[in-house]
Structures are given as C-alpha cells and as structure tokens.
Amino acid sequence: MQFEFSSDKTYDIIAIGRACVDLNAVEYNRPMEETMTFSKYVGGSPANIAIGSSKLGLKAGFIGKLSDDQHGNFIRQYMADAGIDTSNMVTDKEGHKTGLTFTEIKSPEECSILMYREKVADLYLSPDEVDEDYVKQAKILLVSGTALAQSPSREAVIKAVELARKHDVKVIFELDYRPYTWGSKEETAVYYGLIAEQSDVVIGTRDEYDMMENLEAGEGENEDTINHLFKHQPNLIVIKHGVSGSYAFTKDGEAYRGHAYKTKVLKTFGAGDSYASAFLYALINGKDIDTALKFGSASAAIVVSKHSSSEAMPTVEEIEQLISEKENQ
Amino acid sequence: MQFEFSSDKTYDIIAIGRACVDLNAVEYNRPMEETMTFSKYVGGSPANIAIGSSKLGLKAGFIGKLSDDQHGNFIRQYMADAGIDTSNMVTDKEGHKTGLTFTEIKSPEECSILMYREKVADLYLSPDEVDEDYVKQAKILLVSGTALAQSPSREAVIKAVELARKHDVKVIFELDYRPYTWGSKEETAVYYGLIAEQSDVVIGTRDEYDMMENLEAGEGENEDTINHLFKHQPNLIVIKHGVSGSYAFTKDGEAYRGHAYKTKVLKTFGAGDSYASAFLYALINGKDIDTALKFGSASAAIVVSKHSSSEAMPTVEEIEQLISEKENQ
Amino acid sequence: MQFEFSSDKTYDIIAIGRACVDLNAVEYNRPMEETMTFSKYVGGSPANIAIGSSKLGLKAGFIGKLSDDQHGNFIRQYMADAGIDTSNMVTDKEGHKTGLTFTEIKSPEECSILMYREKVADLYLSPDEVDEDYVKQAKILLVSGTALAQSPSREAVIKAVELARKHDVKVIFELDYRPYTWGSKEETAVYYGLIAEQSDVVIGTRDEYDMMENLEAGEGENEDTINHLFKHQPNLIVIKHGVSGSYAFTKDGEAYRGHAYKTKVLKTFGAGDSYASAFLYALINGKDIDTALKFGSASAAIVVSKHSSSEAMPTVEEIEQLISEKENQ
Amino acid sequence: MQFEFSSDKTYDIIAIGRACVDLNAVEYNRPMEETMTFSKYVGGSPANIAIGSSKLGLKAGFIGKLSDDQHGNFIRQYMADAGIDTSNMVTDKEGHKTGLTFTEIKSPEECSILMYREKVADLYLSPDEVDEDYVKQAKILLVSGTALAQSPSREAVIKAVELARKHDVKVIFELDYRPYTWGSKEETAVYYGLIAEQSDVVIGTRDEYDMMENLEAGEGENEDTINHLFKHQPNLIVIKHGVSGSYAFTKDGEAYRGHAYKTKVLKTFGAGDSYASAFLYALINGKDIDTALKFGSASAAIVVSKHSSSEAMPTVEEIEQLISEKENQ
Fold first, then answer.
1. Which chains have 3+ CB pairs within 8 A of A?
2. Taking CB atoms and an 8 Å cutoff, what residues of chain B touch A155?
C-alpha cells in the first residue's frame, strides 16, 4: 500500500501544538540535583517533528503560540532559521510563559524529565488563531496529543482537524501523551478517541493507545485497537513497542513490522519525534511502508545517540547510510 | 420520509444534561423586582423534554447529576413520579448546587430569565458516570447543547454520543443554547459543530444554528446549514423561526414547513422543550414529518399558555385536540 | 462602663459586607423538598443589621456590591426605602450574581439553610471601592466576618478597618461565620484573628470564637478568649451562648450576663442580626451594657417569632415593651 | 540608637518565604535569546538572605515549601550545606514546582529577569505548616513581601508575624516586591501596609514603599512614609534610593544616610539580599546604625561584582576589608 497526498499543496507538513524550550543537562550520567549547567534547545514534540521534517527537505509550517519574551523569541528565530514557515506562530499577549523541559540523564536507561507546563503559552492557542487558508495549503496536518490537554488549545486542534478534513489535508495524529495538564484519564481517553477516529494516520506507543482506550498500561491489544479505529477514518496505524520495534497496520488488512536499530544510546529523549518526521518524510516521498518504518527507526537511532533532540535531527543521507549499514550487517 | 428506530430497546428516549429548578414568578405582568413570591418547578431543557415525553407515554430515562441537597432531592422525586427512570441520575458529592432559573414575566412578549449556573451540579457529570449498558438501551439519546458548555459534562456528552453511535441509538441534538458558562463564541461553535456532525437529528432555532456556525445572529442561511450538515451524519434537520414557524429538511432532499398555532400566550418559556418532546413522540410513533411538525407546534402552543414548563406538558389527547381545532378552523 | 463615640459623625453606623436575597419557605413545618413557594426578602447579616438599625432610628449607611440584575435592583430599592444611605453600594459589572439563601423550617428547632454563594457579587467588592471620605463619617463601622472569606472583598474589609482606625471610627466585628466560600479552617482563623485584634467590639457565638481560635467547636473558653483579645484593641467582647444567654466582657475587667427572653419561636434565623442592631443602638444611645444586652435579647426574641429576618426587625417601642413585660413577670 | 534582641533564642534569624532556582546566563553581555547555557544556583530573596546571614556567621533557619523533585532536593541540600536549619522546609505533595528565575545580563546597566512563578511550591506554604515552637526560637523573623502575594502562603506569613509578636521575636519586613502573581496594586498595598504596620524594621526601595502606599512610582515621600509607619509598630525604617544610597530612620527621630560603594558591576541582581543580610548581621552584633548601613552597602558592592547571588555572599572579613578600603580612600 502506498499513501497518496494531494499534489497541489504549498506545504508538505504543517504541525500544530507546542514549541517549547528544552534545558538539557550539560553534565550527565548523574542525578539532576548534581547537574549545575543546562543547555538550551527548542523542544516539544510537534516542533521537533517540524524541525526534523524541514531538515529532511520537507516544506514545513507551524501553528502555535509563543510567549512574548526571550524564550518565545528564541524559538521563533530558531524555527525560522531551520526553514520552517512561522507566519502562523502567534505571540501570546497575556503573559503566558514558554513551557520548559529539564532533562536528567542518569544513564542511557535512566532518563527522566522535569516539565514546567503551568499556563504555558502553547495551551492558549485559540480556535480563531487557526486560519482555514493556511491549513488547507498542507499535505499533512500533524497533530500532537498534548495540544488537546487544555482549552483553548484543545478547541484550536479540533477546529484544525475539521478544516483539514474539509480541504483534503491528511491528518496525522501523534499521540504524544504527557501526563501533565490533563484533568483525568477519562478526559484524556475522550479526546484521544475523538481525534484518532477523525485522523488518517495514528502513531503512538502501545502505552499511549492504552491511554486512549482508557485501559491500564499493558492491558491493550493491537488487534482491538485496529478493529476499532478502522471502523472510522484511519487507514494507517503505527504502534510502537519500544526496543521490540514497531508495527504498521493498514485498513486493507496488511501488517508490517519495523525493527529498532541498535546504537550507542546516550539518552532516550527525542526518539519518537525523529521517528515520526522520518516516517512521514518517507510516506510523502512515495516510499512503501516497510521503507518508512526503516526510516523511522534509523532516524530514532541517530537522535538517541546525541545530546539534543531538535539539533540532532538527521539528514536523509545520514538516515540512508545507517539503514544501509544496518541492513547489510 | 419516515424515521426508523431500533425496535428492541428498553427506552424510547434517554436524555442527558441538566435537570434544574425553575422559580417562576407567582405575581406576573410586572418586573421581577416587584415579584415577591416564586413557585418551584423542575426545569432545564432535557429534563423538560424527558418529562414531556413521559407524559406523552414514551418510556424515558435520564443521565445527569443532582446536588446533594433539598433541591436535588426534589428533582429526583419529581422525575421519578413523572415515570422517568432515574437510576442514572447520580448525586454530586462535592457540594455543587442545583442550577436555578428565576423567570420574569413582564408581559407575554417580554419574558426574561435570571440564571444561576456557577459550578452547578449538572455540569459536573463526568464521562465515567455515563454507562454504556444504559445508553445502548435507548431508541433515542437526546443531547442538550448546554451540557457541552463545560468540562467534565462536555466529555460525558461526547462519550455518550460515541456510545450511542456504536450501539445504533439515534442521536437527537437539541441545540438549546444558553450564553451562560460558555467560554467564548469560538469555543461554542467548535463543540456545537462537532456534535451536530455526529447526530442523526438536529433541532434548534435559526439563531442557535448561527451560533453553531460562528456567525452573527441573522447572518446564517438554512441552505448553507443543511448543505454542510448533510455531508455528515444528520439526515433530519429542524430549524425553528419563531412565530414564522419551523422547517424540517431531510437528507434525501425534502423540505417541510410547520406553522405556529395561535394561542393566548402567558409567557414564552418552555416552548422549545414541549415542541421537541411532541415532535420526537410523533417520530417514534411512526408518524410522518408533517404530522410531527404539527405535534411540536401544538405542544408548544399549549405550554406557552400556562404558568410552568414542566408541569404544563400536555398529553397526546390535548395535542390532538388542539391540532384538530386549529386545522378545522 | 459606657462606650463613647465621636459626636461629629454623619452616620451612626456604616455596615460593610453582603446584602443578599433570602427565599423563605411560604409553607413551613415541612422539609424544603415539599415547599413549593418561596417569599423574597433582603438578607445577609450586615444588610439585616443596617435595616434593623435604621428601623430603630439610627442613621445607617452601607458599603457593598450588588449584582447588575433584578435581584440587585430589588436590594438597593429595599434598603433605600428602609432609610439607609446606598450611595456606596456599587453595582458589579462582571456578571456576578446576588447571593441567595433558601430557608427550610421543619420545626422551630429544626431550621436549616441552603446557600448560593459561588462567585456572588458581594465578595467582589474591591479595596478601591472603599472610600475613605465615607468611612470616616461613621461612628461605627460594622464588619461582617463573611466578607473576609474571599478576595477582593477580604482586602476591601482590611482596608476599611484600617481607615476606620485612622479616623476614630469604632470597629464592631460581628463574627457571622458561614462555612461557605472559606478555603480552610486555618485560613478562617488567620483572618478572624487579624480583624478581631484590630476591632473595638467583637460580637459572636461561642462556636464562632472557637473558629477564630482554630479550635474544635466546644473547646474554647471565654477566659482565654478575653485574655488574648484584651491584649490588643478590643475593649468590649460579647460572647453568645444560645438559649443560655450572652456575656459581655470589658477591658477594665467587668463581666455582664444577658438572658434570653422566652418567646414563641417560629424559626431561628435572624436572631443574631436583630440582636446586634439593638445592642449597638443601645450603646450608641449611651445606655449601659446591662441595658444593651436586654435590648439585644428582646430584639432577637421578636424576630424569631416572625417569618422574615429583615422585614421583622422591631422598633424601639416594641423592644422596650417586650423588656418591660418580661422584666416585670 | 542600638537595636536590642532577646538573648535567649536559638536562632539569630529565621527567614520565611521562597527558596527557588536561579538560572544565570553563562554567556553574558548579550540578550538572553543568544544565551545558550545557564548555571543553576539557589535564589529567592529570603533564601539569599538566610544564606548570606549564615555565611556571616549567624545561626539561621528557614520556613518554606519545596517542590518534591530534583530542584527541591537541590535547594534543600544546598541550604543545609550552607549551615541553615532546614527542619521547617516542608516538601510539597501536590505537584507544585520550584520557582525559576532566568537572568539576562545585556550589560551591567541592563539586567533583566524572566520568572516562572505559576503555582510554585513556595506560595503553597500553609499556616498549619508554621510552627509556633520554631518561630519563637528566633531573634529575628525575616519576612519577604513576595510571600504575601497569594494564599495560602499569605496566611502563613500573617500567622508567623502574629506568633513572632507574641513571643518577642523582632519582625523584619523586606518589601521585596515582585509584580508576578499579585492580583492588583490595591491588593498589594493592603497586605504590604498590614504587615509593615506590625513589623519592627522595614527595609525596601523607595519604589517598593510607593507600592505599599498605593502610589505611582516616584510619587512617595520618605517623610510621609515614616510619619505613617512610626504611628504603628516599626521603630526602624530603611529606604533605599539605588546609587544615591540609603536612609535609615528611627522612631526616636534620628536619620542616617548610607552611601553606595563604587565597584565594578557585573550585574545588579542580589544587591538587595546581600544588603539585608549584612545590615541585619551588624544590628544583631550590636553595631550602630551607621555601621550597619556600611555593612549593607559593602556586601551589596561585593555581590554585584560577581556572577551569582547566593554563591557570592561575602564573609565578614571581605565586608570589613571593603569598608576599610573605601572609607580610607
């Protein structure tokens, strides 16, 4: 199966959701309490995917809300420099701050994050700041689940999805679940379910699908997930099982398995975002799903071996070289 | 066109949303400032529709949340006495109060209301209090737009609609727009649009459809409304134009017009709820749409001539008698 | 001991705090669930005290915030008609509603209330709406404890007390504790303590003093209370023990006991407010504390025998007649 | 005039309020947008004063609330290592985060900060977490104005001040005004006024006193300020006028002027906190007010020449050496 996109669109991908600041431990392999210096990067799943996509040569845009301060300015400049259209990144005028993520790297296996997400600017994107004329210019609208966590960002995303469907823009839903700012598990399940049913492609970890189905982590079955979602809009569903690799299912009944490539892991952050951008790059460029899965895995393998998420996003050449090396071993 | 319902269901209609207290001016034809005594009734659009339906002989149930106090107790008892199944009316345990509506009847043409809707119990119905086994027993799920105004009631309704569609329960969406408790017009439009597209039947005033379409009152056109909604789930759309009567449109292209029956008006409250219950009664009983429109108009005409909304709901005999009188004039 | 007041003031008493609507059961001696009709009165402790004072011939004013609707209009008109200066009763412009109190009279011994206090207008009085030129014209500033429950009303009261002390206005603190809208017992104790220490006269029930001292109800001792408060500003402390009567303590070491007058009780509401207005009337008119205690008790006895609180406030003649009858029995 | 303190106290100073994290630009003399690395320090005015005091040899304690995460752990450890008693620094259990301050050093004259203060742990210190047995052990209770910005921290401070006065603990009020998290200027003025009137010593900039007096910046006069405050509890008032130096006024009518020492300024942060700790050190050690003013100025001069605030706090020797150098020039 190949995935078809409208050919008459200005942007390959427009992402909607948060663009934040990551503060990555300069001294790592230690608890954060002992980390005394932090490096600043752009972060946030949809921002990372837009940056990763742009680095792969896709034409990317972004819909989001930035704080009216030094951190917001930094993000806008960084993303513009990365080749992303920032014309629909609005500036918050009510004093909301940029979201922050401090990363702790105790060891490659023990990474954790400390997030600042109280009243952050990205969650204040409002539906009237989502422009129909912009959304309709994209082949793909990339939706991050975290943008559904609170109003008015939640309604902005629901509107964007509605507009995408109206204008033949494929909706890709990256579940990207973060426990912060959500009111309850039931509420999460309601909105994840609502958007997943209206999306063309859904990508997430098995745990994230469990959250969507209001199950305890580990209770869900891929079979049930695809049986339910294929009754609705989706025709491609990607379920990631960590080091066991990932599965892609299509509405016409095919199933594909992707394998994780072994690499020297520095930290686990950024794996999902780099996976998504490379996977989508492959789809948009007409590659088959097997190849897209390899692109995703290779891109993730490269990012987890480096210090940042956004800065470390690979080029097509790097991805293809890694695939070539790994497949020929 | 006739509307078909599943025949193997326990309930004709289950309504979801608010059940409140109306405090109606005992002394009327004067400003509320001069009204010194108020009579207590059950109120709230979906409660009124459930009561009206039950009085017409339908088997009705209700999903809602009641305050843990004298007003909540009163509502539960009144609705049970009216023959409604109250097993899914849960009692709030966090101190939320019953919504109140004081009515002011200056003259038949000048009626206004004063609503207490801050943190009212009905808006705290949560998705885990919506029971799949209950929803699936209904021919009709009657959704009131006001229940979408705030979380978690909003999510409870989204879940109920999802369950209704899963189990072949017809979703009837009564727009029932109240400006209170909504955050913004944009937010209102997002959720009204979302639920309308997933409903089988949508009923509302022209002004309410304008709200759904994020237009100024008076800007909307029936043609545009039905063109949009018929691309989605709805196959019957009722648009009410006050004294000019109402229109019903079906997906297969038919249009029907209903006329308002002239009557001695005491106040305008309750007209919409009595209309909806009689219209739905007619549909469920296999009557054609022309007849359903007459039932709605007759029921409304009876209620506006009386003091209360819930207490005044007519019987089938009263409705048929009024139609007979009016059509033979 | 006699209490001295400045003689060059325009107002005998200016009360600050809530003016609300009481909805009293027309049919009583039954649970509220079975009460179908309610009569409307002005209510709220400081409003009742202002009305009671005015009826006794004192020149009264009021600082408060009213809803911009029919209930707010009614209160303003009623209080103006009662002879109270309403020039400092501001109208809320942000949609806050008038507080409501439904009363339930099951029997003279079993009275309860159901209060609507969510985002009510009176709690939105802000410090810039407290006018120094107005406060300084009063002999007495009457502060109700409930006005301390939330910001900005809390700060408005703190400011009013500060201004009163600056301009030689006696501060009378009626503890008037209502559990609604307070955040926690600790918070309550902090603000009750703060204002009590800055007041000249403190009036409350033993239970209310326990709340002020962050004790469980019944734990407090009058001895401890007066020992603490007399280290600060107060020089007269009234502690009410319900049917056992009330005690007045003065800083110079005197103690007085007042007895409750037996009467045919219809309900218990309004007893405290009528007590306070008659007690203060007596003080202002130079009567000794024994007489003031009798005035308080007599006024309370009259109000509990009638249906309303505000409407039932007695005249001086009625009070003196009751005292005369009771003392000569 | 010399200031007398109780001699039988365990702690010289107990500070109450916020202990936060500063993230100081590693690369400076540039806009923060271009700063890519930040160094982590303990920050927050009362924490800095406690650290500065401890470094000067005072026995210091702290009452505050820390986040239950890596930043909270870091602060607790750092302060314990600095010799401060942390037994009354409680850990927040509701997910509140540590406050953050990013510093921007464009030039010595252009320093600004970017604060994260939404729902930060320090503002959730509650009155029941203020222990009477702890407060009473201090010679000085150091109160930071920012701790008054929100409930329940506000009530915790009001209670602490009440306890201090009860147990003959001197209350030192550092106005430390930060615009964040305060509701309004009026509200700020109410609480600043309330606490200032109950304090023994008040320290602040002229602008901060203007805020306390609800004036526009620059409108206030020292004369008016001291006339007002000396009617209440304070007997020493310090008003800082930036580079023009500072004034100290005593209730018995004396006035002192302190001069700022010229130094090579790297940034202006931390000047006030280092000033306060050295000034209080001098008072506690029985030095006269002239000397205390010199200690304050010298300590401030040292800190503004270094990169951090807390780390840079000087020793007594450094202060005395600077004074000696400057006075002998």
1. B, D
2. 186-187, 190-191
CB D173 within 8 A of CB D195: yes
- Do strands A110-116 and D60-66 pair parallel, antiparallel, or not at all (unpaired)? unpaired
Q: What residues pair up with A191 in beta bridges, in sequence order?
A: none
Ordered by start, the domain boundaries in chain B are 11-19+44-96+118-327
Please provide the size of chain B in residues. 329
- The alpha-carbon gap from C226 to the nearest alpha carbon of chain D, in Å, equals 15
Digit-coded pLDDT (tens) for D39-60: 999 999 999 999 999 999 999 9
Residues from chain A that touch D38, judged by Cβ atoms under 8 A, are 23, 37-38, 40
Which B positions 35-74 lie with beta carbon below 8 A of chain C?
35-40, 69-71, 73-74
Beta strand C37-43 pairing with C20-25: antiparallel
Task: Report CA dihedral (A225, A226, A229, A233) to the nearest 10 degrees.
Answer: 160
Residue B1 has pLDDT above 70, yes or no: no
As assigned by CATH, the class of the C11-19+44-96+118-327 domain is alpha beta
- D229–chain C nearest CA distance, Å: 12
Least confident range of B261-270, B311-320, C76-85, D309-318 = B261-270
One-character DSSP codes across D158-214: HHHHHHHHHTTPEEEEE----STT---HHHHHHHHHHHHHT-SEEEEEHHHHHHHTT
C-alpha–C-alpha distance, residues B141 and B149, integer Å:
18
pLDDT tens for the 329 residues of chain A, in order:
567 888 889 999 999 999 999 999 998 889 999 999 999 999 999 999 999 999 999 999 999 999 999 999 999 999 999 999 999 999 999 999 999 999 988 888 888 899 999 999 999 999 999 999 999 999 999 999 999 999 999 999 999 999 999 999 999 999 999 988 898 999 999 999 999 999 999 999 999 999 999 999 889 999 999 999 999 999 999 999 988 889 999 999 999 999 999 889 888 888 999 999 999 999 999 999 999 999 999 999 999 999 888 889 999 999 999 999 998 87
Taking CA–CA distances from B152, the nearest residue in chain A reads A187
The two beta strands, B201-205 and B236-240, are parallel
Measured between beta carbons, the chain D residues lying within 8 angstroms of C158 are 190, 194
Chain D window 115-154: which residues touch C at a Cβ cutoff of 8 Å?
126-128, 151-152
B159 and chain A: CB distance < 8 Å anywhere? yes
Q: Which chains touch C (3 or more CB pairs under 8 A)?
A: B, D
Average pLDDT value for chain D? 95
Q: C-alpha angle with apex B105: B104 to B107, nearest 5 degrees?
A: 150
d(CA D37, CA D14): 34
ipTM of the complex: 0.94
User: Closest by alpha carbon to C49, among C140, C135, C112, C119?
Assistant: C140
Contact check, Cβ <8 Å, B77/C116 = no
Phi-psi map region of A172: left, alpha, beta (phi>0 left; psi -120 to 50 alpha) = beta
3-state secondary structure of D327: helix
Distance in Å, alpha carbon of A78 to nearest chain D alpha carbon: 10
Q: Measured between beta carbons, which residues in chain B are less than 8 angstroms from residue C114?
A: 69-71, 97
Give the whole-angstrom CA distance, residue A130 versus residue C163. 51
User: How many whole angstroms separate alpha carbon B173 and alpha carbon B176?
Assistant: 9
Residue B280, token pair as written in the block: 């739905």
Confidence (pTM)? 0.95
- Chain C residues near residue B40 by CB distance under 8 angstroms: 35-38
Q: Which two tokens stand for residue D170?
A: 């001197």
The bridge status of strand B246-250 relative to strand B255-258 is antiparallel
Residues of D in contact with C126 (CB under 8 A): 184, 186
Using CA coordinates, name the residue in chain D closest to C163.
D190
